[in-house]
């Protein structure tokens, strides 16, 4: 808005509506308009240090269906059309979305989900863990084959669970002037196979004797 002063010169009153136009023409520095502070956000690049303070390790719980591809391929993903190479994997998540996974990333980060019950039903006969001697094993294992004295080691103690797939036992074999003690642990793996760990030691001055339904060690 223009007004004349006593000298006949025009004076202008700048209203709020005019400020934006003057800023564009004269610049904020001339008008004395303070600059708004520039907001900065962290930018992390490949190879830079991870901000480890307060970080915690997490594991993904969702699974995906993967198929190894024998040709180059493309798929529509949330990030657009992506391409995979021969030997890469085409993955589909739980929402039906597709994405490629490189063979290297797959080898480092993925493992196959095995249906233990299905694998056992087709490839494995359930293992009997409660056998304590040859006569009992013959009743429980139809194709049992024995060479030599199957009861050379006498059972001292045993505990097992077929539901949980584990067994622990301690046995003793009589030798001159003492006994050889054997400790065995079996644990069923996720794929239905079993892992076995054994340890043995010689104990002098003892012998194996029957005790209740098992055996015990007594001094010679």
Q: Could you give a quick summary of the protein structure above?
A:
17% of the residues lie in helices and 36% in strands.
Describe the structure.
This protein is α+β, with helices and mostly antiparallel strands and 220 residues long. Among the domains are: 2-28, no CATH class; 127-219, Roll (Nuclear Transport Factor 2, Chain: A), CATH 3.10.450. Helices cover 17% and strands 36% of the residues. The protein contains 5 helices and 13 strands. A 4-stranded antiparallel β-sheet has the order 8-9-10-11, with no helix packed on it. Strand 4 (73-77) and strand 5 (80-84) form a beta hairpin.
Number of E-state strands: 13
CATH architecture descriptor name of the domain at 127-219: Roll
Biggest sheet strand line-up: 8-9-10-11
Distance between the termini: 121 Å
Q: What proportion of the residues is helical, as a percent range?
A: 10-25%
Query: What are the segments in which pLDDT stays under 50 over at least 5 consecutive residues?
Result: none
The CATH topology of the domain at 127-219 is given as: Nuclear Transport Factor 2, Chain: A
Radius of gyration: 39 Å
Strand/helix succession:
EEHHEEEEEHHHEEEEEE
Query: Structural class of the secondary structure composition?
Result: alpha+beta
- Helices, by number, come to 5
Q: CATH class of the domain at 127-219, anyone? A: Alpha Beta
Rounded average pLDDT: 78
Bulk shape:
elongated
The main pleated sheet reads as:
4 strands, antiparallel
Strand content: 35-45%
């Amino acid at each position: 808005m223009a007004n004349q002063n006593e000298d006949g010169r025009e004076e202008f009153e700048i209203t709020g509506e005019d400020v934006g136009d003057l800023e564009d023409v004269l610049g904020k520095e001339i008008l004395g308009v303070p600059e708004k502070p520039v907001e900065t956000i962290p930018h992390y690049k490949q190879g830079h240090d991870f901000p480890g303070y307060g970080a915690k390790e997490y594991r993904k719980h969702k699974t995906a269906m993967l198929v190894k591809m024998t040709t180059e391929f493309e798929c529509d993903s949330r990030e657009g059309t992506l391409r995979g190479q021969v030997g890469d994997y085409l993955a589909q998540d739980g929402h039906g979305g597709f994405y490629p996974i490189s063979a290297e990333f797959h080898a480092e980060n993925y493992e196959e989900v095995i249906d233990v019950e299905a694998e056992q039903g087709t490839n494995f006969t359930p293992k009997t863990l409660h056998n304590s001697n040859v006569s009992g094993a013959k009743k429980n294992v139809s194709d049992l084959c024995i060479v030599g004295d199957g009861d050379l080691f006498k059972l001292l103690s045993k505990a097992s669970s077929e539901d949980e797939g584990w067994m622990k036992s301690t046995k003793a074999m009589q030798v001159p002037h003492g006994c050889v003690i054997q400790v065995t642990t079996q644990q069923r793996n996720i794929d239905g196979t079993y892992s076995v760990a054994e340890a043995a030691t010689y104990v002098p001055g003892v012998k194996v004797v029957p005790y209740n339904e098992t055996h015990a060690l007594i001094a010679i």
